[in-house]
Amino acid sequence: MAEPAIHLMRHGHSQGTPATTEVHAAPDWPLSPAGIAQVEAAAAHLPPGVRAIVSSALPRARRTARILAHVTGLPVVGQTPLLDEWRSPSSVHNVAASDYPAGYRAWRCRRVAEPHLAYEDGESLLDLMARANRARGWLIGCAARHGTLLAVSHKLLMGVLLRLDQGPEAFELASRDDWEFTEIRPFPDAG
């Protein structure tokens, strides 16, 4: 018998996300009305065989999972902060890159070479990698219990999760990835 599959879905568009620039989202940003519509539309395109949904503990991912459950009838069987987005420093939430503090810009230049360093109250890349490894184990366990799984999470965390073998460079690659809101990707070799 084949191992259950795991699929990763980015949450819907959140309130506060500007249309023209990338910013670090505050943890409490909820889905926007456009995000709710995206999720409702995406529910019709879930991969075949999905038996259950899990999500990050952040509001925009939890709401995405609840909407999907309501539309599809699939159960939400868990949520965990292991699937939360990379914890960016609170001083750069909703700040355009052109307005980043000088210290944060300097940290960004060193973050891969010195992955143990964190900026202010943000998460270091080593801490993110360790959390992504724990998230991988959690997802595999959930899939073993519930069958093929849809995990609703966030761009940077999922990008790192898909590139765990690349070490701290995974963060840089994930940050440049064009993972659209409600886009679903398979989590290969999860078993």
Automatic annotation (TrEMBL):
Signal peptide: none annotated. InterPro entries: His_Pase_superF_clade-1, His_PPase_superfam, PGM_Phosphatase. One of its GO terms (molecular function) is phosphatase activity. Residues 1-22 are annotated as: Disordered. One of its GO terms (cellular component) is cytoplasm. This is Phosphoglycerate mutase. The lineage of its organism: Bacteria, Bacillati, Actinomycetota, Actinomycetes, Kitasatosporales.
